[in-house]
Each structure stands twice: as C-alpha cells, then as structure tokens.
Design goal:
single chain; about 150 residues; alpha+beta; 8-stranded antiparallel sheet; 3 helices; about 25% helix; about 40% strand
Length: about 150
C-alpha cells in the first residue's frame, strides 16, 4: 500500500461533539462517539463524517458532522470547525501501522517547516466516513489531518 502525504483545504464542518479531559482510552473514545451519534439520530440529524480531535493537552473531542440546523444540548456541543489548510494522509490501519504514519507525517511536516512552506502545526484530527468500529470501509479510509499555518 502506498501512503502519500499532501496539503489540502478542508471545508468547514458543523460538528456535534463531546469533549473531555483525561488519559487516552479507546473505550472512552468509542463510548463518546456512540453517544454523539445516538444524540444526532434521536434529534433527526443524519450523522456524516466522524471526527476525533485533540484540541489541547490531554483534552479529547469526538464528534459527528451534522447539518446547519443542529443546536447544542446537554453534554453535546454543536460548533463549526472552520475551513482550513491541512497536511493529510489517508491509510488503512489494518495494512500500515498508525505509529508509522504519524511519525512519517510529523517528520514530513518538520522538513516543510524548515523549507518555510509552513509556519507551524496547530493540531491534529482523525476523520472517518462512518463508525470505524463497525464499518470496515470507514476504518480502511482513515484520514489523519494536521492543521497547519
């Protein structure tokens, strides 16, 4: 499998999400993704892309893209992630180790910074086409995106 790094512009996303602080735990991430998806369906929104972010140190956010009519409710917050430039790589974690992809993308960005193509890396997110635990095709197209300036 070939893994290519690229710069691209992402659209603005209207995201319903749950945010929390603490250690990284796969079970907590899955549970919060399922809570947000259940909330979206119960409020009549068709969940779109699934987005996992680390907006701060040991702060995590799981969310699904919903349409523009959505409003925050309880622990679920609805906000818009601005259209932005990202360094992206799409890969299948069953074929290529995520740690290899993350290290490769980090090194690739370090050289882009030295060459003055970018000023800094802001944050990262993982974008899935659906539930990565139940939909093999969603997992097979894992899109890791580092927001760059």
């Amino acid at each position: 499998m070939v893994v290519e790094f690229e710069f691209k512009k992402t659209p603005a996303y209207r995201v319903a999400s749950i945010k929390w602080k603490g250690p990284w735990k796969d079970a907590t991430i899955r549970q919060n993704f399922e809570k947000v998806a259940k909330w979206a369906k119960s409020n009549g929104y068709q969940p779109g892309l699934w987005i996992f972010r680390e907006p701060g140190t040991r702060t995590w956010e799981t969310g699904v893209v919903v349409n523009g009519r959505a409003r925050s409710e309880g622990k679920v917050r609805v906000r818009t992630l601005a259209a932005t430039r990202v360094a992206s790589v799409v890969f299948d974690p069953e074929v290529v180790s995520p740690s290899v992809v993350y290290h490769g993308l980090t090194d690739w960005l370090r050289w882009r910074k030295k060459d003055k193509e970018i000023r800094r890396v802001v944050s990262y997110r993982e974008v899935y086409r659906g539930n990565p635990w139940t939909d093999k095709s969603a997992l097979a197209h894992t899109d890791v995106q580092f927001t760059v300036r």
